[in-house]
Amino acid sequence: MTRPWLACWMGGAVALLLAVGHVNAIAPQRPSAAARSASSERALLDQYCVSCHNARTKAGGIALDTLDLAAVGDNSDNREVWERSVRRLRARAMPPAGAPRPDQRGYEQLVSYLETALDRLAANNPDPGRTDTFRRLTRTEYQNAVRDLLGLEIDVTELLPKDDASYGFDNVSAVGLSPMLAERYLSAAQKITRLAIGSPLPAPGSRVVVLPADLTQEEHVDGLPLGTRGGTALPHTFPRDGVYEIEVRLVRNRNENVEGLTEPHEIEITLDDERLQLFTVAPNRNRMGDYYADESVDKHLHFRTRVAAGPHVVGATFLRKDGALIETERQPYVAHFNMNRHPRLQPAVHSVAITGPLDASAVGDTPSRHRIFVCRPAAGAEEAACARTIVSSFARRAFRRPVTDRDIAVPLELYRTASADGGFEAGIDMALRALLTSPEFLFRIEQDPEAVAAGVPYRISDLELASRLSFFLWSSLPDEALLQAAERKQLHTPAVLDAQVRRMLADRRSEALTTNFAGQWLYLRNLAAVVPNTRIYPDFDDNLRQAFRRETELFFQSIVQEDRSVLNLLDADYTFLNQRLATHYGIPNVYGDRFRRVPLAAQSERRGLLGQGSMLTVTSHATRTSPVRRGKWILENILGMPPPAPPANVPPLVENGSGSQAQTMRERMARHRSNAACAACHRNIDPLGLALEHFDAVGRWRSLGEGGTSIDASGSLPGGETFDSVAGLRQALLAKPDVFVGTLTEKLLTYALGRGADYRDAPAVRQIRREAARDNYRFSSLVVAIARSTPFQMRRSQEASQP
Q1: Strands 794-796 and 457-459, how do they pair?
Q2: Buried b / exposed e along 208-242 (16+ C-beta atoms within 10 A)
Q3: From CA 453, how far away is CA 803, in angstroms rounded?
Q4: Which pLDDT does position 10 carry in this prediction?
Q5: Strand, coil or helix: what is 24?
Q6: CA distance readout (Å), 170 to 175, 518, 588, 589, 729
Q7: How far, in Å, CA of 796 to CA of 49, rounded?
Q8: pLDDT score recorded for residue 339
Q9: CB 793 within 8 A of CB 460
Q10: What is the spatial distance between Cα 251 and Cα 249, in angstroms, rounded to a whole number?
């Protein structure tokens, strides 16, 4: 049967040939294959797309009737329009649901024609984009750089303000340095160098760590000795050998009395799992014989002890009592308290404070001092030469390049000034402080070579490539192996580059891809601010919040470390659980606080990211689910088609009633879409989010919705393909692997470059996706292809300034 659009094309082609006089009975000339293809694809566009996307209606800001389809590969003026069209055609999101649509072959041929033409255009006119010349290290990058430079773990949130995010990542907008931020960097550098060197402090330092208010402390805490419950394990770097004071405070209720204290309890304080002190806390009795615990009950929970300089772990926890319970006291797990309803059954740790050193202490021997003091002057005459060696070695690593005398002139001058008064180590302290506040350390700098003309693509240097690679995979500085390869100008060669990428992925520092990239892509960072209503969800606590995050982190990390196909992110047959999370999910036979890999059945609703509590909770409201947030999350992070920002004054969703007045979520969303201002976007958002309605606002599976209403979890993809519930959604997404892999590639490329990806990067994204497809979309194949890509290895020079 002849397709209507093919018949239309045949008639139009004959008429065109007759009109220009190219048809005769003796020797007709056939059009080229490219011309025939362009003509046939034009017929398809005219039949299915132009009725909406024309110069008059211009739906979505696109007019296809005036564009020359035959010139796609030769004219860059309309490249953005064609790339936007390809994205929606590949996802089968255009034409919209209910409108006539091409068959599968028609889609494939049109997409293939457009992508081939656009890729040819990109190859003939490469545009790698332009990263900022100066891009400041983010808080995470700064923290990791200090760790790798000095062997020093610091909590950067106490030193620097939060970075703004753009395009989903905080390394995109980190470009400026305000006076206030410069002062914070100066203060941070002073604290860091003093701690790393062990410089004498003007006064004893103090650190207080407060535990989350909704942390349940009834069970064992990972990192603390077995046989204990509750409390915290606090990593802390002690600057010098000396005496320190450790103080513990217990949680109070609203009457300022200690919570849950109806019998004596023992609190153990440990250092690196070795007991330092054991305290007993006991309640008081009033005249009626009732127990109570006033604010004086924990006044004695402090002591002083000598600690060697360097990193240690301080623990504060309760000894677990006999776990035997009489039968009537056994009950299913609940979060034994919450702030609104249930008091704590047992006392809990509120805070741990560490103060010191309190005496004239020695410097001590620490990993940081080993990193810094690469030489030791035996006499005063050797100090200047040793200082130069230390400063130049540190500067090379901090600046990510070989250094010159000019680079270290100011730090050495500061060394000479400070050492004259305070000695050799005081001088080194001041010199390192200068290096840590230098723009060469705080900023990643990519400058155009003088010989490159304005607006011209060029290959970045091997040293710049090394920094791009290390901040992409490690969120930190290049190590010695990477730096040496760059200095030898070998890093850009394919064999060396591929080997370095695979080496770096195998390194433990690649966990930054989980904590930094996935933490932002999957909204894991937002979990800390999620506080579900504890009257509606009384079992929710910080233990569950942290378990959600840990499950997704371990899951993503397994894809990276085991080099699995990234499609496993959607449908893996395993996840990672501890007892708390398994109980929440209703998965049996998982005991203890340790996370372990747990197999999932083929029919399990927990397979892949869509069944994990982290995503389901962070995309909900405090009192109910949000199909809008969940649908938007899928559009942005899985399908790569973020909806536009909502218009002003959008009416809120009508909240549910009770009894006969209760409406299903689907009914309320349909009512919301009756507003014309909302309908255009919500017709794509809502069906995706509604498919997840069997998960409540904290990720539990349910058979009934709010108010006991039935749940209809059917949904559809943009374009109209229907499915039922999360299993159907998962299969619909897996049926279009190129869409998800393309979205993930674009996210990784944005994160790797520190700039927003746009239509000019689309050919590179397609090439990366094709290369990865040859290796079953393994994670390493995506990363290697990104490292080889034009946007990653090249940069466009600054355009000429306008007169």
Answers
A1: antiparallel
A2: ebebeebbbbbbbbeebbeebbbbbbbebbbbbbb
A3: 17
A4: 34
A5: coil
A6: 10, 12, 39, 40, 30
A7: 35
A8: 60
A9: yes
A10: 7
Backbone angles phi and psi of 328, in degrees to 5:
-70, -15
Residue 592 carries which side chain, given as an amino acid letter?
G
Are β-strands 205-210 and 596-599 bridged in parallel, bridged antiparallel, or unpaired?
A: unpaired
What DSSP string describes 26-85? Answer: S-PPPPPHHHHHHHHHHHHHHHHTTTTSSTTT-GGG---TTS-GGGTTT-GGGHHHHHHH
Q: Distances in Å between the alpha carbon of 195 and those of 45, 304, 386?
A: 66, 20, 21
**Structure tokens belonging to residue 746:** 């674009």
DSSP string, 747-799: HHHHHHHTS---GGGHHHHHHHHHHHHTTTTBHHHHHHHHHHSHHHHEEEPPP
Side chain identity, residue 625: T
Distance CA 710, CA 714 (A): 12
Q: Write the CB contacts of 580 (distance below 8 Å, at least 6 apart in sequence).
A: 219, 333, 543, 544, 547, 593
CA dihedral (614, 618, 621, 627) positive or negative: negative
**Both tokens assigned to 104:** 């599968």
Distance CA 744, CA 637 (A): 7
DSSP 27-40: -PPPPPHHHHHHHH
Yes or no: say if 589 and 610 are a contact pair by the CB < 8 Å rule.
no
The overall longest dimension of the chain from CA atoms, in Å, is: 121
SS3 assignment, position 578? coil
- Element (DSSP H or E) covering residue 729: helix 725-734
Q: Give the end-to-end CA distance of the chain in Å, rounded to a whole number.
A: 62
Q: Which two tokens stand for residue 690?
A: 């509604």
DSSP state of 695: B
Question: Angle at the Cα of 573 (from 570 to 577), degrees rounded to 5?
Answer: 100
Regions of the chain with pLDDT less than 70: 1-36, 285-295, 322-342, 647-662, 669, 671-680, 802-803
pLDDT value of residue 658: 47
Helix (H, G, I), strand (E, B), or coil: what is residue 275? strand
**Within 13 Å, how many C-alpha atoms sit on residue 547's CB side?**
28
Q: What is the dihedral of CA 323, 325, 330, 333, to 10 degrees?
A: -20
pLDDT tens per residue, range 198-225: 998 888 999 999 999 899 998 899 889 9
Q: Return the axis-axis angle of helices 480-487 and 494-506, rounded to nearest 10°.
A: 170
Q: Is 644 helix (H, G, I), strand (E, B) or coil?
A: coil
**Alpha carbon distance 403, 561 (integer Å):** 35
Q: Could you give the CA distance from residue 282 to residue 574 in angstroms, rounded to a whole number?
A: 45
- Report yes or no: 654 and 668 within 8 Å, Cβ to Cβ: yes
Q: Say which residues have a Cβ less than 8 Å from residue 725's Cβ, sequence separation at least 6.
A: 605, 691, 694, 713, 714, 715
At 176, is the secondary structure helix, strand, or coil? coil
Q: Give the integer Cα–Cα distance in Å for 494 and 788.
A: 7
C-alpha angle 693-519-644 in degrees, rounded to nearest 5: 60
Residue 500's pLDDT is 98
In this prediction, residue 12 carries a pLDDT of: 37
Residue with tokens 């536009």: 644
User: Which runs of E-coded beta strand occur in 193-264?
Assistant: 205-210, 228-238, 242-250
CB 357, CB 244: distance < 8 Å: yes
Contact present, 234 and 226 (Cβ < 8 Å): no
Task: Count CA atoms within 13 Å of residue 139 on its CB side.
Answer: 17
Which string of b and e fits 321-340 if b means at least 16 CB within 10 Å? Answer: eeeeeeeeeeeeeebbbbee
Burial class (CB in 10 A: 0-12, 13-18, 19+), 669: buried
